[in-house]
Amino acid sequence: MGQLEAVSADKTSLGFEFQDLVFIEKLLELRPGESLGLEVFDDIHLETITSEVLLYQVKHSLCGGNITDRDCDLWKTLANWLKAFPELPQDREVAFRLHTNKALNSQKLVSLLKAPEKDIKAIIAHVRETHDDIAATDAKKATGASPNPIAGHVSALARASDAQLRFLFERFEFHADDNAILARIDVLLTYLSVPPTQLSATRHQLIGAFKEYKFKTICANKKINVSFDDFRNRIGLALIVAAARSDRANFEEFVDRYYAYRRPQDLSFLRSRYQAQLAELDVTCDEIIDRGIEMKVTEDFIEELRARGLFGHTENVRLENSAHSAWTEIHRDAHSETHADEAAQRKAAFTCYKQTIRESLTANQQSLPIAMSRGKFISLSDQPRIGWAKDWETRFKS
């Protein structure tokens, strides 16, 4: 393997990326008065409002796999925490959390550590038995042979007093991650009312904002210690979430829905009120069907926007009122003259219809695609709230 290939194959940076994502997850869980530190007491540490300090070690394996009883990351983490006892804050309750992307298997020590408070004695006994077993095996190796890679970590734990080990294991928790860290961040963002359509973009923006903050803080030779208020203001969570919440409906998506629509063979508008109105104007069957499809796709699209939280009942009522207002003037102009014969009246009604469906509507300060505007006018005529003939109310509204 060449030097360039060797450098490109170095995957240690992935562990730091995973640590940053865990840190962001914990930031999203912060409550007022709490703070989170990076590489201060540990990989990550949380100072809670109850004066508790949680120390997080974050371990990432490129290949995943399982945590076993002889896992090097596990023993190294436990040994490092033991060595750090003199540096821990004496006026706080302390707890230890191991975050790993590996799964937890069912071997003895791992099983005990899943609920360590149930049998601390068995855990301490297993630590010392593991030390004796490794020492005996290494003693049989040839001179110069490499010792077991976890031997030093296990030895440090085995030499500790029962009180020290009890202090460590009573406060220990596993947090096994199945590579769903991004999904968990998205869930936390939904708790902040970020719309589903904006989750990915918001997560990307949040990660970028944190990395910029981290870079500037390290360059200033400062410790990364983020309070609840820092996260919302200095890193910018409040603005990021506010921007995501202000997401507006993209009405251009209607065009995609309309041209992707496949008309069912049994689709019929024969009993609809809008069809009865247009049939009197001698509008062709094909055009009546086209108007019906525009109405259906429009209402389905608006319902989808409602479900996505992008276009509510109030906005839809406002749109319908705006359409009604536009139609009112067109209808008044079309029937401003009195026509004695039926043909002239029908022509005026047809003019009213054609002028109305050429009208472009707006919603949320955006122009609607013309087919969507037509669909909304046809929907109003189907209610029926508008009509084309001068006497449409007496004939179709009952």
Explained architecture:
There is one protein chain. The chain folds into two domains: 3-245, no CATH class; 253-396, no CATH class. Helix 14 crosses helix 17 (370-382) and helix 15 packs across helix 17. The longest helix is centred in the C-terminal third of the chain and has 23 residues, at 285-307. It has a six-stranded mixed β-sheet. A two-stranded parallel sheet has the order 4-6. It has helices spanning 3-8, 12-28, 72-83, 108-114, 120-139, 151-159, 162-170, 181-191, 199-219, 228-233, 237-245, 253-260, 273-279, 285-307, 313-334, 342-357, 370-382, 392-396; strands at 35-38, 44-47, 52-59, 66-67, 93-100, 103-104, 172-176, 224-227, 362-363, 366-367. It has 398 residues and is an alpha/beta fold. Mean pLDDT is 87; it is low at 1-10. The chain is built from 18 helices and ten strands. It is 56% helix and 10% strand. Strand 2 and strand 3 form a beta hairpin.
